[in-house]
Amino acid sequence: MKALLALVPVLALASCATSPLAPPAGPGTVDHIVLIWLKKPGNAADKQAISATADEFRAIPGMKFYDKGTALQSDRPVVDDSFDFALVSRFESAAALHAYENHPLHQKKVAEVLKPLSKKIVVYDVTR
Fold it and tell me: How many Cα atoms within 13 Å fall on the side-chain side of residue 92?
């Protein structure tokens, strides 16, 4: 439940972003939120490797919005700030998300970088 509550600020980031790359969330759009806990929490080199990999995902067709960041530390009991890294992206449809997930670059980078460096990965896909 705490992890789900952590999703609220991430979704706010995705839906309120002022970037020209952040289209309004319309019917059928899907926000893809990925929370990552590193095997070596706080390791700067691992965070950089994940950040660089995530940036490569922008080249995959179908993504309408993309952002990334780290957990904002909080004393509030409803906030899960235990993750090390978050990726937030928006797709025009579930089909576009499915194509992204199956794209060879995504598959390769998940297998070669994300999974080896991560202790835990949690994904939330939210549709409108």
Answer: 7
Task: Kindly provide the residue ranges of all beta strands, DSSP E only, lying in 3-99, ordered along the sequence.
Answer: 30-38, 63-69, 85-91
Q: Could you state, in order of their start, the residue ranges of all structural domains in the chain?
A: 2-16+28-127
* Domain topology for 2-16+28-127: Alpha-Beta Plaits (3.30.70)
Residue 38's DSSP bridge partners are 118
pLDDT digit string (tens) for 64-94?
Answer: 999 999 999 999 999 999 999 999 999 999 9
pLDDT tens-digit map of 40-54 = 998 999 999 999 999
pTM of the model: 0.80
Show the tokens assigned to 107.
Answer: 């598959």
